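Following up on my earlier thread - several people asked me to post the actual chain instead of describing it. Fair enough. Here it is, all 495 residues.
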Amino acid sequence: MSHPSKEQLQKEAAEVLSALDITALKPKQRIAIPVQEMPTQDPGVRITNMEEVAIGYSKDQVIAESLRCLQCKNAPCIKGCPVSIDIPGFILKAAEGDFQGSIDIIKESSLLPAICGRVCPQEAQCQLYCTVGKSLKDVEKSVSIGRIERYVADLERESGTIKMPEIAPSTGKKVAIVGSGPAGITVAADVRKAGHDVTIFEAFHKPGGVMVYGIPEFRLPKSIVAKEIDNLKQMGVKVETNFLIGRTRKLMDLMVKDGFDAIFVGSGAGLPKFMKIEGENLIGVFSANEYLTRSNLMKAYDPKNASTPIYNSKTVAVLGGGNVAMDAARTAQRLGAEKVYVVYRRTEKEMPARVEEVGHAKEEGIDFLLLHNPKRIIGDDKGRVTGLELLRYELGEPDDSGRRRPIAIEGSESILDVDTVIVSIGNDSNPLIKQTTESLVTNKWGNIIVDEDCKTSIPGVFAGGDIVLGAATVILAMGQGRTAAESINKMLAEK
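Reply from S.P.:
Thanks for posting it. Predicted structure:
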């Protein structure tokens, strides 16, 4: 598959714009404008580095893509956005070339546009409701909302013109944030703007949560996350790293001993699930969490400067079909694996991973073993992985998730020769906070139970993000963060 260069795509966009009377575009003309392809590194080059795969739109591309928006009066795209960004508003400004005005509109609702523009599943959220996509009967032809968002956010950051929000006069109230992922960052910003003293407590040595330890550099450069943390610090938010709530300090001690008036728990879902099959304790079996944390947070891909070693693999099987599985597979390849398989028990249609991530993985040579699932992991007399016994599957009736249920085909066993297995079938909530916090109510999976205002069973304690939702998305965590911050500000104002 040939990949046009950024220069070629920019030239095509310029030709599109020169052929249009932008001041008098009718809906049919807007729909006829071709979707602007995202420039990317060539697959043969990018598998040799950790640099970002998607290069980003040019100015002409972002204007051409913005002109595809019909500016629908009922704005159906907004209902697909967990933080209710004024999508037609920011796209209209981008179409006019007012990129600062565009990012200003986004930041009325979203604190992390450069991040969300890269990693949010827009095709399952805002773009799913886009009138253009529905008119063309293909969500992939919807207006590329996330790509436009990314462009205007990057432009502001790179130009050094990021505006700091106004901070209200000090209220004398203190708020503790547990976890520095998307939910925690959102709450910290909104609560700080209200004039409260805010401290984030992060268990790792670097803040950023899943955006730092989970998502690879080639999808989300860590410098972007670091800039967002710097912005929080400029607002006056304090960040304490290497601070594990439940060990360094119990949750309620933050109130009783340290005098915090409210607490938000956004500790994420970091406890990996395993398949409970024979051989999962062999050398060469990893959770995707561990594997990606070693690579992303501790820079194992750079042996000279790494804080940790990483397993030297030749043939890797990644078990699962979500975005984390794609991240693990593509990381393994970049770390030197000669062959990488993704093993998934349904078909590609049922995969929860983003279409773009699956497409990138295929371009990079990842091999997909669909309608297969492991029965056991095989090892040698030294306890090292040598293979994976697989069963073939077929699809039956839909299950509770709405996807067709995979059914094993008896007698269909086969052996796949591998030396590494990475398990990526989801995460549960870390039980530490629950174990050390009396009267905190959770469900059977360990997720904290909250009401519609993100209040937990303990007065003054709020929660949101993956610790409540299970493993979800950045923007969904941010949506809960906005709700929690509003509830905290209201409670403290009433006090």
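Residues 474-494 form the longest helix (21 residues). That should answer part of your original question.
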